[in-house]
Design brief:
single chain, 641 residues, alpha+beta, Beta-Lactamase, 5-stranded antiparallel β-sheet, 18 helices, 21 strands
């Protein structure tokens, strides 16, 4: 209270905050030594309750006639609240400044002058980095001069409306370019104070470059996927469509649809090789050109002609600069064109594929590579389809010829059959007469004839009987060749045992070991297979006739992975040097006096086995026996079929 000071209990220095006493006294002495009559101080005092207050001290120096200060008079105001507000404002300003300085977002501040022109106030370091300049010299300049790129972008009026109307403005992608920098910005404009706005902007140039690169990569992947899908579809068409015309039409429309080209066409050379004739084309232009039989001369008069003449691709990314291009009035929008050769297996150029686009430089290296690969596949497919068509035509002609020849052979076979039966009938009667009368002479007049006469009659009988057997064998051979076959399951084991039983009954006195394997089954004609086993087992029985201990075996074995049936004996055998004669009609390796026969039996066996789709062969050695093999369709394989 004032009494505390009047009584001397307190001095003014006692209530000055200890932290401020030093500069309080220093300022007082400094002002006292000066010629000033008044001064102002700010410091803290401590109240009786211990609270601290900021004060504003306005002091006047009272001097005597000599200028010596006699005492101080002053007014002390409590400015604690104002001081705290000022501190808060300074802290806020410092925070704002620190944020603006540190933030990676570019900040520009503009104000409207009296003429409503935007004037640059300040910018932060991030803005300077983005704009690649020091903005401090630009303070106070109008925006048109400080940042001319905004003028070119046409957005200054939008900024002015932000400052005057308080609306916000945003641009997700704003191109800015001046003599310093060329960037893409993301900009947000907002009002700070009336007639003052701020711009917050980010440099998204790299981001947009990455996005463009991603879009380019995605487009490349999409295009590559389209290329591969188209190539796969073209390959499938090439392998499944055997009609050349359908294949060509399908291929050009597939390429046009998948790639979205303006026009796709395919030319093939004519027989003379002088002209390339359009065989397929897309759109109305293609239809009209096909109607008039559009063709181009092979040579340097067009891209197609040049491509075929040289067997190389010709690419025009700008058709206006292509010297030898044929300017087709039906395709006025073409800006890019390529002609790709169709090379056959022998690298002969049989035609060309033309692809045209409305855009310049429309073809990438990948496009060219994929389309050339497709052209190569297409050329081979066209060649294959043409060969298939030619083979089909030849097959039809051959089928017709075979049918005609078969009819002729059938007629001849009928004539031969009639002739054979006629001959056999005409020959058998005289032969029977010869044999019968010779037998009668021997029985009735044998005692009259000498031994020579009787021998002559016996020879006549043997010859007539042998001739009769030969006629029967020939008729059998003829019948097995013509007879209609009826395939069924055949038990070869049972057939062989039946034949062996008949042989034993005819010569019960012989000692022959016959071994027949169980369970031998095959697919064939039962009657014809009976003839096969009769001939083979009869031969084995006959050629073991001079063996005291004969052995005949019928079984099966694997030969080169195929089941083969065999008849093996230990009889006379044969020389393998003459094995190729065994199955010929009338071919014999032994004299009739040694082993009787006509030489037709094995020929009959061979014809029957061949008609079954099998094969027959023999192995043997002189004096060591022989083995005859034959193959037939197995029961399991027939079931699979």
């Amino acid at each position: 209270t004032p009494d505390d000071f009047y009584s001397g209990r307190l001095t003014y220095m006692d209530i000055v905050h200890p932290g401020d006493r030093g500069h309080f006294l220093e300022d007082a002495r400094r002002y006292q030594d000066s010629e000033q009559d008044s001064y102002e101080q700010h410091y803290r005092i401590v109240a009786a309750d211990g609270s601290v207050h900021w004060v504003e001290d306005h002091a006047w120096l009272m001097r005597d006639e000599h200028g010596v200060v006699t005492h101080h008079q002053g007014i002390v105001l409590d400015v604690t609240r104002r001081h705290e507000t000022e501190v808060a404002l300074r802290q806020s300003d410092e925070r704002y400044r620190n944020i603006i300085e540190a933030i990676p977002v570019g900040i520009h501040i503009y104000r409207l002058d009296d003429d409503d022109h935007l004037v640059f106030v300040e910018g932060n370091p991030a803005a300077d980095r983005i704009m690649e300049m020091d903005s401090r010299p630009l303070v106070g300049m109008r925006i048109e001069k400080a940042f001319p790129g905004f003028v070119h972008a046409g957005i200054i009026e939008a900024y002015r409306q932000v400052a005057t109307q308080g609306i916000s403005w945003y641009a997700s992608q704003l191109g800015y370019q001046d003599r310093h920098v060329n960037v893409i910005l993301e900009v947000h404009a907002f009002r700070i104070l009336p007639r003052e706005l701020g711009l917050a902007f980010l440099d998204i140039t790299r981001q947009k470059q990455v996005e463009r690169e991603q879009r380019r990569l995605l487009e490349t992947l999409r295009r590559r996927s389209t290329q591969l899908q188209t190539a796969a579809a073209a390959s499938k068409a090439a392998s499944t469509i055997l009609d050349p015309e359908q294949l060509i039409i399908r291929a050009v429309h597939l390429i046009q649809e998948r790639f979205g080209f303006y026009y796709v066409g395919l030319f093939l050379t004519d027989e003379s090789g002088e002209y390339a004739v359009l065989r397929a084309g897309t759109g109305e232009a293609g239809r009209r050109m096909l109607e008039v039989g559009h063709r181009l001369r092979v040579g340097n008069t067009s891209m197609i002609g040049w491509c075929i003449a040289h067997g190389k691709a010709r690419i025009a990314l700008d058709v206006g600069e292509e010297a030898i291009r044929f300017d087709n009035p039906l395709l006025p929008e073409t800006r890019s064109e390529m002609a790709l050769p169709l090379l056959s297996r022998g690298r002969k150029c049989i035609g060309a594929l033309t692809v045209q686009s409305r855009a310049e430089a429309a073809f990438t290296e990948e496009d060219i590579a994929v389309l050339q690969s497709m052209a190569d596949q297409l050329a081979i497919a066209i060649e294959n389809a043409s060969l298939h068509e030619e083979i089909r035509r030849y097959a039809a002609e051959l089928e017709q010829r075979v049918a005609e020849r078969t009819a002729e052979l059938a007629a001849v076979n009928k004539e031969l059959e009639a002739f054979a039966y006629s001959v056999s009938h005409d020959l058998r009667a005289p032969l029977r007469s010869m044999d019968g009368f010779s037998q009668a002479l021997l029985e009735d007049y044998g005692d009259v004839l000498d031994e020579t006469g009787r021998d002559y009659l016996r020879r006549v009988r043997n010859a007539s009987q042998r001739m009769g057997q030969l006629i029967d064998d020939l008729l059998t051979l003829s019948r097995v060749t013509r007879r209609e076959m009826h395939f069924t399951r055949v038990d070869l084991t049972a057939l062989a045992r039946s034949v062996a039983r008949e042989l034993r009954e005819m010569e019960p006195e012989r000692k022959v070991e016959v071994v027949i394997q169980d369970g031998l089954l095959a697919r064939g004609d039962p009657r014809l297979m009976t003839i096969v086993l009769e001939n083979l087992l009869n031969n084995a029985w006959k050629f073991t006739g001079k063996r005291e201990e004969a052995r005949i075996e019928f079984g099966s074995t694997l030969v080169d992975g195929v089941e083969a049936y065999y008849v093996r004996d230990n009889g006379a055998g044969f020389d393998m040097a003459y094995a190729d004669k065994l199955f010929g009609a009338f071919q014999r390796l032994h004299r009739a006096t040694e082993f009787p026969g006509t030489g037709v039996g094995l020929a009959t066996v061979q014809r029957i086995i061949h008609r079954h789709g099998g094969r027959v062969w023999a192995e043997g050695a002189v004096g060591q026996g022989a083995t005859f093999y034959f193959t037939l369709p197995s029961v399991s394989k027939e079931a699979e079929k």
